[in-house]
Amino acid sequence: MLQIGTYHTLKIARDTKVGLFLVNENEEVLLPKKYVPADFHIGDDITVFVYLDHEERPVATTLKPYITLNQFAVLKVNYTNKFGAFLDWGLEKDLFVPFKEQARPMEKDKRYVVYLYEDEKTNRLVASSKINQFLEQETIDLEKNQEVDVMVSHITDVGINVIINGKYRGLAYKNEVFETVSPGYKTKAYIKLVRPDGKIDVSFQKLGVEVIDASAQSVLQALQQNNGFLALNDDSHPEEIKSVLKMSKKSFKKAIGSLYKQKLISIKENGIQLN
Predict the structure, then answer these.
(1) Per-residue confidence (pLDDT) for residue 211, from 0 to 100
(2) Is residue 80 predicted with pLDDT exceeding 80?
(3) For the S1 motif domain, which residue ranges apply (predicted)?
(4) d(Cα 75, Cα 112) in Å, to the nearest integer?
């Protein structure tokens, strides 16, 4: 049986009143008439997403869902009933989250980070907001300074919790994040530390010397965009620097020190000037 919850490239076998029948070796699935492309030929390949329709039958669609099998995403609740919550994932049939898979009771119109999996008992696609059970916590194959992809899962007083490469749980400390983030926000990050207990610290900025270079480049770019002058210097408040340049005061001071040594800027009483 074709794996549901994923994309497949299938061959158009025949055209019928209800749609196109697509095949993969000995398996067949219907692409309903409303999703049939305007221009097609029997024997052509077409890429579709396969899931179960309202009658629990495999069906294909050319719509692109917001989440695929074994992935995380932030989805909005369309409605709830006595069975659970139903999420908007970009397809006609909503995605089901049973009560037992809700980290806390879901509410209509609110958004939650969820994981999409196939239920072994029913063979249906189900989402869960109890995401920790789907993250690797023992075997961690990451190295310090490694560039990774992260998605923000939730924000606490301590920092920004992220999902690393779709596999691990990590944390970026709030005082080291200089951009506005919310659950579902995706970006590149860098591994700062993998602790003995399996906890992982990440940074949204490159580490070490590369940070200074990147920060210096950001200062130069800001100067060029502001007629060669910024009203910022060593006496500026950290929040003012963060608001203008999205970096810490420490990184700013290192950046202007580097630029000054290279004679790219002049330091004035009321700010810095591009030479």
Answers:
(1) 53
(2) yes
(3) 3-64, 68-130, 143-205
(4) 6
**pLDDT of the residue at 225:** 87
Q: Are 163 and 180 in contact (CB under 8 A)?
A: no
Domains annotated for the chain, with CATH where assigned, are 6-61 (2.40.50.140), 72-133 (2.40.50.140), 147-203 (2.40.50.140), 209-274 (1.10.10.10)
Positive or negative, the CA dihedral 71, 116, 184, 202 is negative
Q: List the beta strands (DSSP E) in the chain.
A: 6-15, 19-24, 27-32, 45-52, 58-61, 72-80, 84-88, 95-98, 111-118, 125-128, 147-155, 159-164, 168-173, 186-194, 200-203, 229-230, 265-268, 271-274
Q: Which residues contact 139 (CB under 8 A, 6 or more apart)?
A: none
The 10s digit of each residue's pLDDT in 103-150 is 999 999 999 999 999 998 989 999 999 999 999 988 899 999 999 999
- Regarding predicted confidence, which is higher, 32 or 210? 32
Strands 168-173 and 125-128: unpaired
HSE-up (13 A, CA, CB side) for residue 55: 2
| Three-state DSSP class for residue 251 | helix
Which residues touch 28 (CB under 8 Å, ≥6 apart)?
A: 13, 21, 22
| Residue pair 200/167 in contact by the 8 Å Cβ criterion | no
